[in-house]
Amino acid sequence: MKILIADDNPVDRLLLSKIVSKEGHHVIEAKNGKEAIEYFLQESPDIILLDVIMPLLNGKDAAKEIKRLAGEELVPIIFLTSLVDAQSLADCLEAGGDDFLTKPYNHIILKAKIDAFVRMRNMHGILQKQRDTIVEHNQHMLREQHVAKTVFDNVAHSGCLDAENIKYMLSPLAVFNGDVLLAARKPAGGMHVLLGDFTGHGLPAAIGAMPVAEIFYGMTAKGFGLQMILREINTKLKKILPVGFFCCAAAVSLNFSERSMSVWMGGVPDCYLLTNKGSHLESIQSQHLPLGVLKTEQFNDDMTEHSMDIEDRFFMWSDGIVEARNSQGEMFGEERLRSIFSNDIDPNVLFDAVQKSINEFVGETEKDDDTTLVELKMVDDEAVDQAVSSRRSSSVASDWKIDYELGADSLRNFNPLPLVMHIMMEVPILRVMGGQLFTVVSELFSNALEHGLLTLDSAMKSTPAGFAEFYAVREQRLTALQSGFIKIQMQHTSKNGRTGIFKLSIEDSGEGFNYKKVSHEKALEIADNTSEKNIYSGRGLPLINALCHSLEYVGCGNKVVAEIHWPQKNKV
Amino acid sequence: MGVQSKIDESGQEVTIKVEGRFDFSAHQEFREAYEVASSKITSYVVDLGNASYLDSSALGMLLLLRDYAGGDDACITITKCNDDVRRILSISNFEQLFTIK
To answer: Which of A44, A147, A366, B64 has the highest Cβ tally under 10 A?
Structure first.
């Protein structure tokens, strides 16, 4: 160890220096306080022995300065003094000294004290190093979390949370939020909203939220119903979350045009539906287990239906709201929550009232769970549309017409349906009806090809063997096809992007059929399948008729025109 | 696109999985899928989880399967239909003939 000894008395200094160097330490000698400070800066000693009364700068002032210069580093200072009164000794420690040694020196005590301070200094060094490591790690982690949060926000909040009819409050505990709030416009109108509360919070919860958001936004954009989406999310979470981890959720499908809402709730506190200008309050209870608990086969996607008028509101929250605690450890509780709603507050400021009430209740106490509060308002379709349509990608095909004629060569070895479907799928709203549209196009194209061009008779399909034969003959005749054509014409028109008509006509070069002879009405009726006779064909036209707004044969029966209008009025 | 079939451990149930478009082009494969199965088979599951589209010839094929499996006594479950497929099945009143899940 390097030990600095400062004493103006040469004899005392020499004596002390001898004792200390005998113990194997390296000694630096200073004659006064000023020198002590100089040597301290030059030599960085490990321990300083400082006489109290010295010329130029006394020991106490030197100690103060040295401690200031040392900063966070621990440089033990032991005062050397012949003073023995309690106050003088206390003053030494007051000035920044760590201990004192009274003259004449007892070298056993001196050695013990030096050893003790060496230990203390080492320990202090280790502590500081560990602290620095922890600080560094923490900063590193925070940097990583900030990057991850950016990714998370891009995924989780890509929806329409800023829509005019949504009010929400999210309070993250850590950088990440264990609560996840997602909202997306359905391509066919309406809105999906999902509030999820993962067990735990921070990183583990956020990781679970990523696939939830991906599935929610991806499937909503593709036009899937909320039930399918929930089913998919449940399957995914069940697969990726460890046992004991799950996601409590409330999911809502808002239908603005029909003024209704379907709700699925699993493991979340009661939600409130406020109707009749705020005069009627209904609690809606969770009917299901949280997402990620049950296997796919056991998952229940039943939803409850509620009709809503314009300005009616639906409130949902994570359990962090009900379980928010004040400084006394009391919970906010459902009763307090409900009482806010029974206070006859103007529905327009209710959300703020709830938020205020919770904040006041919790006060300065540290929140121990994530708290999320959401209000959904029923509004006019147009109100939401206007806000959202401005953001809709401008490169959407809405008004177009296409004529597509296939000759015999193409028909022999080319299936035009994927291409036709691809063109239709460029219109988001048609994408939603993709399944039906395929059935319509495929059906009418098959009819044109099989009956029009290849003159096959469906009656063949009345037995299993005939069914197979039908397709065998189809293959033969198609291979042998030398002339003929099929014209596919598609047209889509849209009015302000709110309603639209898709018109499909398919014409073939065949002879047509006497569609008037077959009683049109009857041909389009759906056969009662429970009747004893189960023929394997004849379902195509009734099916299309049910799917389309209108279906008409024209000319000699070699041309058919189908119209599909959207938004669709459900025929089934 | 394709049709796959799998018989369960008991050897009594066969699951036929149709992927992609379920139309006449799947006819041969679909028939093979249920005809290959042994006589021990008592119940059939048609998994349409990965079937995107359905047309009327697919309905015909389902009815062929039903007759093959014993007509009114047939035990056939159609599972995992997406909304579109379910709609097509329901328009054609197929709920009355098959168990649709």
So the answer is: B64
> Is B29 at the interface with chain A, CB within 8 A?
no
Positions in chain A short of pLDDT 50: 389-394, 529-532, 571-572
Q: How many residue contacts between A and B have a Cβ separation below 8 Å?
A: 99
CATH number at residue B36: 3.30.750.24
Q: Is A86 on the interface with B (CB under 8 A)?
A: no
Say whether B92 and A526 touch across the interface (CB within 8 A).
yes
**Side-by-side strand order, sheet with B76-79:** B2-7, B13-22, B43-54, B76-79, B99-100
CATH fold label, A400-566: Heat Shock Protein 90 (3.30.565)
Per-residue pLDDT tens for B19-45? 888 888 888 889 888 887 667 888 999
- Interchain proximity A438–B82, CB inside 8 Å: no
Two tokens at B1? 């696109």
Strands B43-54 vs B76-79: parallel, antiparallel or unpaired: parallel
Fold category of A157-389 in CATH: Phosphatase 2c; domain 1 (3.60.40)
ipTM: 0.77
CATH of domain A2-127: 3.40.50.2300
Tell me what pLDDT residue A201 has.
65
- CA atoms in the 13 A half-sphere facing the CB of A220: 27
Residue in B closest to A471 by C-alpha: B24
